[in-house]
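Mods, move this if it's the wrong board.
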Amino acid sequence: MRKHERLRAINKRILNPIILKFAGKTPGPFAVVQHIGRRSGKSYKTPIMVERIKGGFLIALTYGADVDWYRNVMAAGGGVLRWHNRKYAITKPEPLDVERAMQKFPLPLRAVLRLNHTEDFVQVRSRAEGTGS
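Not the wrong board. C-alpha coordinates:
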Protein backbone atom coordinates (compact mmCIF):
# COMPACT_ATOMS: atom_id res chain seq x y z
CA MET A 1 0.00 0.00 0.00
CA ARG A 2 1.46 3.38 -1.04
CA LYS A 3 1.91 6.18 1.48
CA HIS A 4 -1.01 8.24 0.09
CA GLU A 5 -3.27 5.19 0.13
CA ARG A 6 -2.51 4.48 3.80
CA LEU A 7 -3.05 8.10 4.75
CA ARG A 8 -6.27 8.23 2.73
CA ALA A 9 -7.57 5.10 4.51
CA ILE A 10 -6.77 6.59 7.92
CA ASN A 11 -8.36 9.91 7.02
CA LYS A 12 -11.49 8.24 5.64
CA ARG A 13 -12.13 6.32 8.86
CA ILE A 14 -10.80 8.69 11.53
CA LEU A 15 -10.21 12.27 10.39
CA ASN A 16 -13.02 12.76 7.85
CA PRO A 17 -15.82 12.18 10.40
CA ILE A 18 -14.18 14.78 12.67
CA ILE A 19 -13.59 17.27 9.85
CA LEU A 20 -17.20 16.84 8.64
CA LYS A 21 -18.40 18.33 11.95
CA PHE A 22 -17.03 21.78 11.00
CA ALA A 23 -16.16 21.65 7.28
CA GLY A 24 -18.37 23.90 5.20
CA LYS A 25 -19.81 25.58 8.28
CA THR A 26 -16.89 27.73 9.42
CA PRO A 27 -14.50 30.13 7.67
CA GLY A 28 -11.47 28.40 6.27
CA PRO A 29 -10.42 26.21 3.38
CA PHE A 30 -12.56 23.16 4.20
CA ALA A 31 -15.82 22.52 2.38
CA VAL A 32 -18.07 19.49 2.00
CA VAL A 33 -18.90 18.06 -1.39
CA GLN A 34 -22.16 16.14 -1.61
CA HIS A 35 -22.18 13.61 -4.42
CA ILE A 36 -24.06 10.55 -5.64
CA GLY A 37 -22.25 7.23 -6.04
CA ARG A 38 -21.99 6.42 -9.72
CA ARG A 39 -22.65 2.71 -9.12
CA SER A 40 -24.47 2.63 -5.79
CA GLY A 41 -26.71 5.66 -6.28
CA LYS A 42 -26.11 6.48 -2.60
CA SER A 43 -25.56 10.02 -1.35
CA TYR A 44 -22.14 10.81 0.17
CA LYS A 45 -20.49 13.78 1.90
CA THR A 46 -16.73 14.25 1.69
CA PRO A 47 -14.61 17.03 3.21
CA ILE A 48 -12.37 18.78 0.69
CA MET A 49 -10.02 21.77 0.52
CA VAL A 50 -11.18 24.66 -1.69
CA GLU A 51 -10.42 28.23 -2.66
CA ARG A 52 -13.11 30.60 -3.92
CA ILE A 53 -12.40 31.87 -7.44
CA LYS A 54 -14.38 34.05 -9.83
CA GLY A 55 -17.46 32.11 -10.91
CA GLY A 56 -16.80 29.08 -8.76
CA PHE A 57 -14.28 27.17 -6.71
CA LEU A 58 -10.85 25.65 -7.10
CA ILE A 59 -10.60 22.25 -5.44
CA ALA A 60 -7.34 20.62 -4.36
CA LEU A 61 -7.36 16.90 -5.09
CA THR A 62 -5.13 16.13 -2.12
CA TYR A 63 -5.10 12.38 -2.87
CA GLY A 64 -5.03 12.70 -6.64
CA ALA A 65 -7.75 12.40 -9.25
CA ASP A 66 -8.40 8.71 -8.54
CA VAL A 67 -10.77 9.27 -5.61
CA ASP A 68 -14.42 8.26 -5.52
CA TRP A 69 -15.92 11.68 -4.76
CA TYR A 70 -14.14 13.23 -7.77
CA ARG A 71 -15.07 10.38 -10.11
CA ASN A 72 -18.70 10.66 -8.91
CA VAL A 73 -18.79 14.42 -9.54
CA MET A 74 -17.20 13.95 -12.97
CA ALA A 75 -19.69 11.21 -13.90
CA ALA A 76 -22.65 13.32 -12.75
CA GLY A 77 -21.27 16.57 -14.18
CA GLY A 78 -21.52 18.22 -10.77
CA GLY A 79 -22.76 18.06 -7.21
CA VAL A 80 -23.37 20.29 -4.21
CA LEU A 81 -20.70 22.11 -2.22
CA ARG A 82 -21.23 23.47 1.30
CA TRP A 83 -18.78 26.27 2.07
CA HIS A 84 -18.93 28.98 4.76
CA ASN A 85 -22.42 27.80 5.73
CA ARG A 86 -23.89 28.20 2.22
CA LYS A 87 -24.74 25.58 -0.36
CA TYR A 88 -23.66 25.89 -3.97
CA ALA A 89 -24.58 23.82 -6.99
CA ILE A 90 -21.29 22.98 -8.72
CA THR A 91 -20.96 22.06 -12.37
CA LYS A 92 -18.49 21.81 -15.21
CA PRO A 93 -15.55 20.22 -13.38
CA GLU A 94 -12.39 21.01 -15.31
CA PRO A 95 -8.83 20.02 -14.36
CA LEU A 96 -6.37 22.88 -13.84
CA ASP A 97 -2.59 22.56 -14.07
CA VAL A 98 -0.65 22.63 -10.79
CA GLU A 99 1.22 25.92 -11.35
CA ARG A 100 -1.87 27.95 -12.26
CA ALA A 101 -3.84 26.35 -9.43
CA MET A 102 -1.20 26.89 -6.73
CA GLN A 103 -1.09 30.62 -7.50
CA LYS A 104 -4.76 30.93 -6.57
CA PHE A 105 -4.32 29.53 -3.05
CA PRO A 106 -3.05 31.77 -0.23
CA LEU A 107 0.59 31.27 0.73
CA PRO A 108 0.01 29.24 3.94
CA LEU A 109 -2.31 26.83 2.12
CA ARG A 110 0.10 26.64 -0.81
CA ALA A 111 2.82 25.48 1.60
CA VAL A 112 0.54 22.76 3.02
CA LEU A 113 -0.40 21.58 -0.48
CA ARG A 114 3.26 21.46 -1.55
CA LEU A 115 4.21 19.49 1.60
CA ASN A 116 1.41 17.05 0.73
CA HIS A 117 2.74 16.85 -2.86
CA THR A 118 -0.69 17.84 -4.20
CA GLU A 119 -0.49 17.97 -7.99
CA ASP A 120 -4.12 17.62 -9.08
CA PHE A 121 -6.69 20.41 -9.03
CA VAL A 122 -10.12 20.95 -10.53
CA GLN A 123 -12.11 24.12 -10.99
CA VAL A 124 -15.89 24.10 -10.92
CA ARG A 125 -18.55 26.64 -11.75
CA SER A 126 -20.98 27.42 -8.95
CA ARG A 127 -24.16 29.19 -8.06
CA ALA A 128 -25.71 29.57 -4.63
CA GLU A 129 -28.63 27.19 -4.22
CA GLY A 130 -32.01 28.83 -4.15
CA THR A 131 -30.88 31.61 -6.50
CA GLY A 132 -30.89 31.98 -10.23
CA SER A 133 -27.41 33.47 -10.27
